[in-house]
Write a structure and sequence with these properties.
The protein is built from 27 helices and no strands. The chain is mainly α and 594 residues long.
């Protein structure tokens, strides 16, 4: 039987058949934008949440006999009992609060004073002083601590021997750098360069009209500072305070070099001691519990910071063409300001550097004398720099710095692109995950990374790459703070024009975004590179014979009592840091102008 259908009649197709036909049709292709978004968020989840989950899991596990990687798992709450019911924990916590608070108070008092002198007064040589206040940033905190130990250790410290000769004293001392007050002072000086940079930028941009009005009404300097200047700088000060607080509570270098000989323990060294005991097996469960304790302590200040930033409109002072910072005349205070500035620069930078150079050209460490001048030699440089151990550490340090900087900044660019450009409902997740490592102390990141790669069958444990992964996790937040603003400044229409002309997503990145983001990328690359080669916390937490870097080699030499070798490596490390900063900044500047 044949059925004919009139061509002019509409053909009705049943809904069920239409749906079936649609299902058999071609599937929708996944866009490159979706692939980039998904992969980036998955990488962030792996880097950030994976180690944190491992940290929490190990805190509930009995690891006194080692880490258990196969069922049955020895779950227990004994680690929390050990930590939170011990009087030692609260003693260490109180020491941590004193150490952190004292260092921050010192750093901000000095930084605010220098910021005001450099930006608001007629003090001579302000540009030179600006550079020299920032210069100690090129000396890692580990090296600064070693230098102060050479200066003020109670037995043969350079300054102590001078004081004993001048005042005819006997016995050790009179000063002891292995004490909490000196730990606070040395850590505070280590914080000043970055704190000064953070505060100076805000003070430079603040309108002085309100200060002028207060001065016209008869208010004195201290009243103006307390009621006008400091309240207007509150967001910048609190932002810097939160950042520097995390820096202090995670610090291992100064507490290890100066605190360990004096039996002064803070939470970061407590975690290090639990996971790297001098004898016996490491107790990762107790170390993880201390890590959670330290993480909570580091996250707490963020609540206050967010509250202040929520009222940021209350601190607006730059409103238009009337903006003009006012330069104040110091008058009779000028000599005192110069004495303070050059005295601090000598104590914080010149004196530690000079003592390191002196120790590096002596066969054994001693005070300055005619006999000591006759003993000056560079043999220590020849023997140290020609050793295979130094060559390995130097190669690993360069690889670590380049890999960490490149990985962090590439990931940061992708994350910032999601935050600024993506319409995905999950972009908030990328922002939160990228910011979270900023609030996680490095010692916690190191411990959690160590635990996760003890279990995962990924062959990076004991290699330089496990340190690079941990540092990449720590510094991705620093990178995104730079790249997010950079991408936000690029008009979306430039990308849309490229896409409209037929360019694929990879071409948009290669031809549009990457060239425009080059200055931001190189600035971030410089900051991460310098931070990673100076970092001691993660190399020590993840140390093995196969991933030795310069920072861990310096500490190892110091721990063995080799003062001359330590001084040689410290001078070389400081020089490498400064040269790398100048080279990378110059390269970044040239490329930005291409």
């Amino acid at each position: 039987m044949t059925t004919t259908i009139d061509r002019d009649e509409p053909v009705t197709v049943k809904p069920g058949r239409a749906a079936k036909a649609d299902r058999k049709g071609p599937r929708r292709r996944i866009s490159a934008r979706t692939v980039i978004n998904t992969i980036t968020i998955l990488v962030l989840l792996y880097l950030v949440l994976g180690p944190l989950i491992m940290l929490v899991v190990s805190a509930f596990e009995d690891t006194s006999g080692g880490v258990v990687i196969t069922p049955p798992f020895p779950w227990t709450g004994a680690n929390f009992d050990t930590v939170f019911t011990s009087s030692e924990t609260y003693s260490v916590l109180w020491t941590t609060v004193l150490f952190s608070g004292g260092a921050l108070i010192f750093a901000f008092a000095v930084s605010l004073t220098f910021a005001w002198l450099v930006e608001r007064t007629d003090m001579p040589a302000r540009n030179t002083i600006f550079v020299l206040v920032v210069a100690p940033q090129g000396m890692p905190a580990l090296i600064s601590a070693i230098a102060w130990s050479l200066l003020l250790n109670p037995t043969n410290g350079f300054l102590n021997e001078v004081l004993r000769r001048v005042f005819h004293l006997s016995g050790p001392g009179p000063l002891n750098v292995y004490s909490l007050p000196w730990m606070i002072l040395v850590q505070g000086m280590a914080l000043v360069p970055l704190t000064f940079l953070l505060v100076t930028a805000s003070l430079r941009g603040m309108n002085a009209s309100l200060e002028d009005a207060a001065r016209t009404s008869g208010s004195g300097f201290w009243t103006i500072a307390r009621k006008v200047t400091l309240p207007l700088l509150r967001p910048a000060i609190i932002g810097a305070l939160v950042y520097e607080f995390v820096t202090v509570v995670e610090a291992v270098d100064i507490p290890l070099v100066l605190g360990l000989p004096g039996h002064v323990t803070v939470l970061s060294t407590q975690i290090y001691n639990a996971s790297h005991p001098p004898v016996g097996l490491p107790n990762y469960g107790v170390g993880s519990t201390y890590g959670i304790f330290l993480l909570i302590l580091a996250l707490a200040p963020l609540l206050f910071y967010n509250k202040i930033i929520g009222n940021s409109s209350d601190y607006v002072t730059v409103t238009g063409k009337t903006f003009r910072p006012k330069i104040q005349e110091l008058g009779r205070l000028k000599p005192w300001a110069m004495l303070f500035s050059w005295g601090y620069i000598f104590v914080s930078f010149a004196l530690p550097l000079l003592i390191l150079i002196w120790a590096s050209i002596q066969p054994y460490f001693g005070t300055l004398s005619r006999d000591a001048l006759k003993r000056v030699t560079v043999k220590s440089y020849k023997s140290t720099l020609s050793s295979d151990l130094f060559a390995t550490a130097l190669k690993n340090t360069i690889i670590l710095g380049l890999a960490t900087a490149a990985g962090s900044m590439i990931l940061a660019m992708l994350v910032s692109w999601i935050i600024v450009r993506s319409r995905s409902r999950f972009r908030w997740m990328a922002d939160v995950l990228a910011f979270l490592p900023h609030a996680i102390p490095g010692v916690v990141i190191g411990l959690s990374t160590l635990l996760i790669y003890l279990i995962l069958p990924i062959p990076v444990y004991g290699t330089i790459w496990i340190i690079a992964i941990a540092m990449g996790t720590q510094y991705v937040s620093l990178g995104t703070r730079l790249t997010t603003g950079g991408i936000a400044q690029i008009q979306r229409s430039l990308e849309e024009a490229a896409e409209a002309s037929g360019a694929k997503q990879r071409h948009v990145w290669r031809r549009v975004l990457v060239p425009l983001l080059r200055p931001v990328f190189f600035n971030g690359f410089l900051m991460v590179f310098l931070a990673s080669i100076q970092n001691l916390t993660l190399p020590l937490m993840l140390y093995s014979t196969g991933n030795l870097v310069l920072s861990s080699l310096i500490y190892t030499r110091w721990d063995y009592g080799d003062a001359t070798g330590t001084a040689v490596l410290s001078v070389v490390m400081t020089a490498i840091t400064i040269v790398a900063a100048l080279f990378l900044r110059g390269a970044g500047g040239r490329r930005a102008g291409d």
